[in-house]
Specification:
Residues 96-126 form a coiled coil. The protein is mostly helical and 150 residues long. 81% of the residues lie in helices and 0% in strands.
């Protein structure tokens, strides 16, 4: 009997003395709320995540770019892929000179592909246009984010 009473006392004592101030499942929210300027940390994390999404989509576009019937277009597309990969490496390494150099090369090959599009049939022209628009959109978002970075 004493053993049961003693066990009950310990359990009651433990339950009443262990209080939780605030239950939070997310470790990210706790680090954000403890900082003084949590708004800027949230915005920096959001921008970094968006930059990763844009870079990942560019990588995905590089790997899924289709082959076309025109050899000149395929040659320029392979050059564009190489320059895009080099751009992403320079972007990840914070190499501003390499990033700008590859961006100029991307613009040159982009213009060449635009000139060569007239030799493609209508379906291939729509496909390459879709890829080029998505690439240009993601590149411009990455560039605008890097221009705004402190």
């Amino acid at each position: 009997m004493k053993k049961i009473l003693f066990s009950a006392l310990i359990i009651c004592f433990t339950l009443t003395n262990c209080a939780v101030e605030k239950f939070n499942m997310s470790p990210l929210n706790s680090t954000i709320s403890t900082g003084n300027d949590s708004g800027s940390l949230e915005s920096r994390l959001g921008k970094a995540m968006q930059n990763n999404v844009n870079a990942a989509e560019i990588t995905n576009l590089i790997s899924t770019f289709p082959k076309f019937r025109n050899d000149g277009v395929n040659l320029e597309v392979s050059r564009l892929k190489q320059h895009l990969q080099n751009y992403l490496y320079a972007y990840g390494a914070y190499d501003i000179n390499g990033k700008n150099r590859n961006l100029r090369e991307i613009e040159r090959t982009y213009k060449k592909i635009q000139r060569l599009r007239q030799y493609l049939n209508k379906d291939e022209d729509e496909i390459i246009n879709r890829y080029l628009v998505r690439l240009k959109t993601n590149l411009s978002e990455l560039e605008s984010a890097s221009a705004q970075a402190p």
